[in-house]
Write a structure and sequence with these properties.
There is one protein chain. By secondary structure, the chain is of the alpha+beta class. The protein has helices at 4-20, 26-33, 39-51, 68-78, 86-98, 103-118, 171-185, 195-204, 209-223, 246-257, 259-267, 317-331; strands at 55-56, 65-66, 121-125, 134-143, 146-153, 158-164, 229-232, 275-278, 290-299, 302-312.
């Protein structure tokens, strides 16, 4: 579509605009970006890039700014994916290696780290418990009428709940519960804990209906827990000059307030790589002025939720995507390099 010269000029304009937030002139390209063409040649190519929709020209300026289509071409064809420093790598490694106890911690720390390194607002969502496979269920007797249930999934998710009863429970009964729940459910999704299991326990063990119902009810509360959403650096976006526009600032606040919208963004069908949605590529009207960049987090090939960045279209895509790729790689290895 573009010859090498136009690609070079478009890349220079996008990167200069990302850095300065000011319309880019041919003079700026020559003096600040070191593009070795005459100003006249650059102006002609800028006009051509505008005609094909990759650049826009603000009415009050002779310079150009990237269009959403221009950003898309830049991301797809021109991006440097190695825009991450040694110091940033060391910081990310330290954060992800030293503060992980379970999957909720990993999502929260990764979301926070992404925001700290990129200086944009990040959002993370944990997976629904019911979709994960059970590694172990452990019942621990805490008192004559109280048991703690701990569920560990194959992805590292740990869920705990306290179950209180209206009758005494013996240690022997608790051990039987451990045996039967693990033999029936290990390796199966949490959501398989259902009515047939109740019937099985009733038929195999001498428990009262009330005891079994108390256990099933508490475990079902774990299964039905909604995904948790974490926001980090929500104030960082207001440092960007675009957000001096009151309407854009309001739209951003509305986005963060709409849990359903955020969940839709993060739970949409994605590729296994980094996913970038720019401006009107986002279906919702509130998102037309924003870019969304996301990736699915995986541990040992298990899908463990999604992490993303929400920011203006004038986003440092090179930095954000490079950092995301590095974090994604670390998380795929359980947070270890």
């Amino acid at each position: 579509m573009l010859d090498n010269r136009k690609k070079e000029i478009l890349q220079a304009i996008v990167e200069e605009y990302i850095e300065t937030a000011e319309p880019v002139s041919s003079k700026a390209i020559v003096e600040k970006r070191g593009v070795d063409y005459s100003s006249a040649t650059i102006r002609n190519d800028m006009a051509e890039l505008e005609k094909i929709g990759l650049l826009d020209k603000p009415h009050t300026s002779s310079g150009r700014v990237p269009s959403a289509k221009g950003y898309r071409y830049y991301v797809d064809e021109l991006l440097n994916y190695n825009d991450i420093s040694i110091q940033e790598i060391m910081y990310i490694q330290n954060q992800l290696e030293t503060k992980i106890n379970q999957i909720e911690d990993l999502t929260k720390i990764a979301t926070s780290t992404l925001s700290e390194v990129t200086h944009y607002t990040s959002v993370g969502v944990t997976p629904k418990a019911g979709s994960q496979e059970i590694e172990e269920i452990k019942f621990v007797l805490l008192g004559t009428r109280m048991v703690m249930c701990v569920i560990v999934t194959d992805g590292g998710l740990v869920k705990e709940t306290i179950i209180k009863f209206n009758e005494d429970i013996r240690e022997e009964q608790v051990q039987n519960l451990n045996s039967i729940f693990n033999s029936k459910l290990k390796g199966k999704p949490l959501e398989k804990i259902d009515k047939p299991l109740e019937e099985y326990i009733f038929s195999e063990l001498n428990y009262s209906v009330e005891v079994i119902k108390a256990i099933i009810n508490q475990i079902n509360k774990i299964i039905e827990e909604e995904e948790r959403i974490y926001y980090e650096g929500a104030n960082k976006v207001f440092e960007q000059p675009e957000f001096q526009n009151v309407q854009m600032a309001k739209n951003f606040i509305n986005i963060l307030d709409r849990k359903d919208l955020v969940m839709d963004l993060l739970n949409s069908e994605f590729t296994d790589d980094i996913n970038v949605y720019i401006g009107d590529e986002n279906a919702d009207d509130d998102l037309q002025d924003f870019s969304i960049i996301t990736f699915k987090q995986r541990i040992n090939d298990k899908e463990m939720g999604t992490i993303g960045i929400i920011g203006p279209k004038r986003m440092d895509y090179s930095k954000v995507i490079a950092v995301m790729k590095y974090i994604k790689g670390l998380m795929g290895n359980g947070g270890k390099k």
